[in-house]
Amino acid sequence: MKQDGVILIVDDDEDILVAGKLLLKRHFSSVQICNQPENIPRLLSEQKFDAILLDMNFGPGESSGAQGYLWLEKILEIDPQSVVIMITAHGGVDVAVDAMKLGATDFIAKPWQNEKVVATLSAAVQLGRTRTEAKDLRNTNKVLAEVSGASSGQALLGNSPAMKTVFSLIERTAPTDANVLILGENGTGKELIAREIHAQSLRSNKVFMSVDLGSLSETLFESELFGHKKGAFTGAKEDRVGRLQAANGGSLFLDEIGNLPLHLQAKLLTVLEQRMVTPIGANLAVPIDVRVITATNVSKQDLSLESKFRQDLLFRLNTVEIELPPLRKRHQDIAVIANHYINLYARKYHKPVKLLSAKALTAIENYPWPGNVRALRHAIERAIILSQGLELEPIDFQLDPQPNQAGDVVAPVSVNVANSNTIENEDLNLDRLEKGAIKQALQKHRYNISHAAKDLGLTRAALYRRMEKHGF
Ligand SMILES: Nc1ncnc2c1ncn2[C@@H]1O[C@H](COP(=O)(O)OP(=O)(O)OP(=O)(O)O)[C@@H](O)[C@H]1O
């Protein structure tokens, strides 16, 4: 069977070209020949060759190899990944060795032995493919690092004294490698802050790896974080690199760290102390270099309970602590964030940019936003889509009257599906029932997404998707 490989033979001796083509055609999928090296740049620009067989001497009586060196250099200049095999005259080993110092992969001496030529080219083609794959991988990694490492393109906004303190903390902390713990309710912008820290850090051109511990099932935690070897447990069909290892060189953002079970807290602590990670089922530990940024919506008070969170791990994680107050406690941020998203969604939905009416601004500034900035953002998106007037009015925001200033829930909820198997409400529309159940769960758990998701039997990610769908 022919090997998948595209080969180019460059030689001014027609006999060599014909013999080489006849031989190699039987073993490789494509063989091209060229009797004038001047055509090499054009050929390389037209096609990718897995291996190039290049003569050392062109022109009658030439034996110095100078032409071969020249064209070898030219080829590597055009594509440094090229795999070039030199064709040397009998006894021209010195010349071949010099060519290899310049970057040739191997050489074949004339007159050649067919088996040797095929074997050399077969290895060369494989090397060529591996080099191309490695280059593609490097490029993919670079793009991934750029995409994930960038500040997500989202502006971190705020005028409040609390946000000014946060900006200053980010600026001072980012360039150090200090671990940072971000505390705040769901939707306050913890992930945005983590990305900003990474973007302003010396690791900004490396990967930013985010792991939402709130949406992982307990069985997945360990393998997701630490990785596993093939066969380490039922279902481990192949080796898997853990997130800690994948974040090597960059920053690892562990969201909802409060959800990490106690026994894995111990394992994480060991990894951070030793800067080594051992995938499940592996014998060898792998060194890692990551900056760890964590976030949680668990209160500081709860986090300092040894029964819930290992205090030695907490001290490792909270070298710097950033506390993000809920939006209702920093209403000076509301106008600037609202205007930013009005512009963004007007562009997205091809709508005219509208101003907030004075009444609308007062309404959103006085609303307690139990879902914080995430909910404000969704409310703006909905308002942009629905608004028909010249300005955005309070009615466009469909603000629920239920929470009072302190964020306490006081309003009754219209749909009750939580405690009974029979649905008393007349409305059996599944979509509305789902919306009602989500609303009820969010209110019950004061917009704690992890708890609401658990109550609804959903992962956090699934709840977010549904919240988005229903415009929460
Ligand atoms: N200061 C801010 N300026 C602009 N947008 C913000 C700000 N804070 C949060 N947002 C937006 O609000 C949404 C939620 O932010 P983010 O995911 O960072 O919150 P979080 O606290 O990590 O939430 P969770 O605890 O649920 O994971 C995002 O769309 C984010 O862009």
UniProtKB/TrEMBL annotation:
Residues 6-125 form the Response regulatory domain. Signal peptide: none annotated. The modification 4-aspartylphosphate is found at residue 55. The keyword Ligase does not apply. CDD domains: AAA. The keyword Nucleotide-binding applies. This is Sigma-54 dependent transcriptional regulator.
